[in-house]
Structures are given as C-alpha cells and as structure tokens.
Amino acid sequence: MKTVDFTRLPLEAGDIVLDLGCGEGRHVISAYAEANVHSIGVDLSLKDLKITRERYASFAEPDNARKSFGLSSASALELPFANSTFDKVICSEVLEHIPDYMGALREIERVLKPGGLFCASVPRRWPEKICWALSEGYYQVPGGHLRIFRGDELRSEIEHIGFKHYSRHWAHALHVPFWWLKCLFWNSQDTNWLVKQYHRMLVWDLMENPALTRILEKSMNPIMGKSVVMYFRKETAS
C-alpha cells in the first residue's frame, strides 16, 4: 500500500533515494521496483528491517548493476550519511512518532541535495482526532502517535527550514472507517466481527485493485483521506 505518488516524486535513473522510517518496507521497496535507483531504508526497529529484507527478496534484481538496495538501523536525529547525499527523501507516517520531529526534518534537509525532492506524509487532522477520541490505546501504545498535526502548520515549518512546497494530495480514505472501528473496539479488535470483515475487504482491495474501489477512494480522498501527503523541493543556495 503506497502513500507516495511517484508521478509527483519522479524517480530518475541513478537517483539515491532515502526512505526514513521505512518500517516494513512499502516505500523503500516500491522505489527500488519503480526505477533504476539506489534505494536505502532507515528505521530504528530491527524487526521491521528484517521483514523489509525478506519482502525485498521477491523484487531483487541481482544482475541489474544500475540499481541497489540497502537498509540501516539509525536514529532520524543522527543519520549516518554525509551532507547532500540523497536526490529524493521519503518520510511517510513517521513524524507523528518522533518527539523532536523538527530535528528529524533538519536532518532530512542536511542529507538532501540542493534541488532534491522530499515527500512527507502524516495522518490527517480530523480523522486522527476521532481515533484519539475513541481510544486512548490508539496513541498511548509504545511507539504510538505523539501529536496531531495541522497540515498547513507542518507545511510552513518545512518551508521555513529551506524547502519549497509544490504539490499535495490525500490518501487512504477507505482505511479511515477501519481505524475508527479498531479504536471503537480497541480491546477486542482482534476478534471483533466488524473489524475482521472490514480488514478482509481492505486486503481484497489491495490484492485485486478493482476499478470500483479505486474510483471510490479517489473521490473520497479529498474529503476523508487518512493521510495528507506533501511534496517539497529543497531550495538551492542563491
């Protein structure tokens, strides 16, 4: 399930791409599969990185020297890369988990090349507020969400450290009711019939990608997309 739209974050042959907070690999693997790029994922969780490595095996092109894939365990506040290393940086559904998210954004600015592109996504404010209202467990779990962003304020903060915003969209509207149900039945979510049936529908949608749900989600995203996805270009020194 991709949140990033690679038509808005176009990958060019030879790009070095960072997926910061790559989790179980959806974007770092997608970038690798999308083009002849050098795709690197960073996450603190060794468990998630192991899952990513296992999932990558199905996409690996060992005979294609024009692309590569790498993973590293590191803090978003101390990335083990030199200044101006990356052509593209993705940070999807991560900033809401980091206490010093501005420190992470400054690290992104440091490792991104001048003129490079950056995609940030965070949970949309109003669907997220309902999740918080329905269940304290949703955000009080270890590693859970620490804040609810206002999209325009986050955009301004990112622009303030040297980026120019150029595109925005919303994603995953069909997932919003699923998370509301999980929160409503938080203590019984693993066995609740409604939660299980909705999850089955989402898996079916992901695997089959039918036209009906594609059209439905596209029409609903501007209204209730779960994620707000913003794209920026790092300004070059004048």
Q: Find the CATH topology of the domain at 16-124 and 137-172 and 221-234.
A: Rossmann fold
Order of helices and strands: EHEHEEHEHHHEHHHE
The level-1 CATH class of the domain at 16-124 and 137-172 and 221-234: Alpha Beta
Percent of residues in helices:
25-40%
Q: Can you list the strand order of the major beta sheet? A: 3-2-1-4-5-7-6
Beta-strand content bin: 15-25%
- What kind of sheet is the major sheet? 7 strands, mixed
CATH superfamily of the domain at 16-124 and 137-172 and 221-234: Vaccinia Virus protein VP39
Low-confidence stretches: none
Average predicted local confidence, pLDDT? 95
From the coordinates shown, what is the CATH architecture of the domain at 16-124 and 137-172 and 221-234?
A: 3-Layer(aba) Sandwich
Overall geometry comes to globular
* Structural class assignment: alpha/beta
Per DSSP E runs of 2 or more residues, the count of β-strands stands at 7
Termini separation (Å)? 39 Å
- Rounded to an integer, what's the Rg over CA atoms? 18 Å
Number of helices: 9
Task: Describe the protein.
The protein is an alpha/beta fold and 238 residues long. It has a domain at 16-124 and 137-172 and 221-234: 3-Layer(aba) Sandwich (Rossmann fold), CATH 3.40.50. Helix content is 40%, strand content 22%. It has nine helices and seven strands; from the N terminus they run βαβαββαβαααβαααβ. It has a seven-stranded mixed sheet with strand order 3-2-1-4-5-7-6, sandwiched between helices. Helix 7 (175-184) packs antiparallel against helix 8. The radius of gyration is 18 Å and the shape is globular. The termini are far apart.
